[in-house]
Design brief:
alpha/beta, 51% helix
């Protein structure tokens, strides 16, 4: 069997060689009698010396492949490119910042051999500031509560994916990628492996707070329509309240409890149109949600052909 290691990077000249050597020592050299390996170095248009380092690694080892994006298409797109280009029976995504220990890949492979088509790392502990950690926990709570299917909490992109799942993943042509959600959506037998995430070897993360926000928005808009339905429910609620208040104000006017001329007419007009518009916005939101599903063209079902 062949195992592909997808290593996306952007401006990681201080870490790339160290992570590759660590991967070679802990995974490739240990398993080379059992498995074939290919390593895909996915350069997301780095502007430092990362490109030259990657090319040197490629020239030294015949199982290493090197690809450079024409521009920085983003972290998720870079990983997706690696998945699309790899040829292994399984693929593992490994960041080049040193936060994920390559040795855990051996556990991924063992779980894979036991029959799991997806094996993902679950971060029981990680080194990050409290604000980012709180934001991340809120995000996972929201996704867990409102997603129509299970997306593992505290699981990142450090995972092993079987060829069966990779082939389905190649069929997805979405522009706003959230790979963790897509892999969960595809299904099959998935399992998590707990681990403590390390600190970055050197340098600063290229993933800013804004990148996390964009990733969260991609996840929310791609995998749940419930916010749109919440808008519909809010619109329906306000419409109901307004249509109750309309006859109340009309009765107050008829019995002389409203002294200011024109006040009742103004209130009735405002209540009517406010309730009507909020209801219309809610209905449009529901339709937009269904249009979103159709535009994405995800398969309606996936059959496990090997389950006999």
């Amino acid at each position: 069997k062949k195992i592909s290691i997808v290593m996306p990077f952007f401006n990681e000249e201080k870490n790339l060689l160290n992570i590759f050597n660590d991967l070679k020592k802990k995974v490739i050299d240990v398993n080379q009698q059992i498995y074939d390996f290919e390593v895909l170095l996915m350069n997301n248009n780095s502007i430092d010396n990362s490109s030259n380092i990657a090319k040197e690694i490629k020239n030294k080892f015949n199982y290493v492949k090197y690809y450079k994006m024409s521009r920085n298409f983003g972290y998720q797109a870079n990983i997706k490119a690696g998945y699309d280009l790899c040829t292994g029976d399984a693929a593992v995504q490994l960041d080049t910042d040193g936060e994920d220990d390559p040795e855990l890949i051996n556990k991924f492979i063992k779980k894979w051999e036991e029959g799991h088509e997806v094996v993902y790392g679950v971060r029981t502990k990680r080194q990050e500031n409290k604000i980012l950690s709180l934001t991340r926990n809120i995000f996972y709570f929201f996704i867990r509560k409102y997603s129509s299917f299970y997306i593992p909490e505290k699981a990142g992109d450090f995972r092993l994916i079987d060829r069966k799942v990779l082939n389905y993943l190649k069929k997805f042509d979405e522009k706003n990628l959230y790979l963790r959600g897509l892999v969960s959506y595809i299904g099959f037998n998935q399992a998590g492996v707990d681990y403590e995430r390390n600190q970055r070897l050197s340098g600063k993360s290229k993933f800013s707070l804004m990148d996390y926000i964009v990733l969260a928005l991609n996840a929310v808009t791609s995998f749940t329509k419930k916010p749109l339905f919440v808008i519909f429910y809010i619109g329906a609620f306000f419409s109901l309240i307004n249509f109750i208040l309309i006859p109340i104000y009309l009765i107050l006017f008829l019995f002389g409890f409203v002294e200011t001329k024109g006040f009742t007419t103004l209130i009735l007009i405002v209540l009517f149109f406010f309730g009507f518009l909020t209801l219309l916005i809610g209905i449009l939101g529901v339709y937009i949600g269904y249009i979103l599903d159709e535009v994405k063209k995800r398969p309606v079902y996936i059959i496990d052909d090997n389950d006999e």
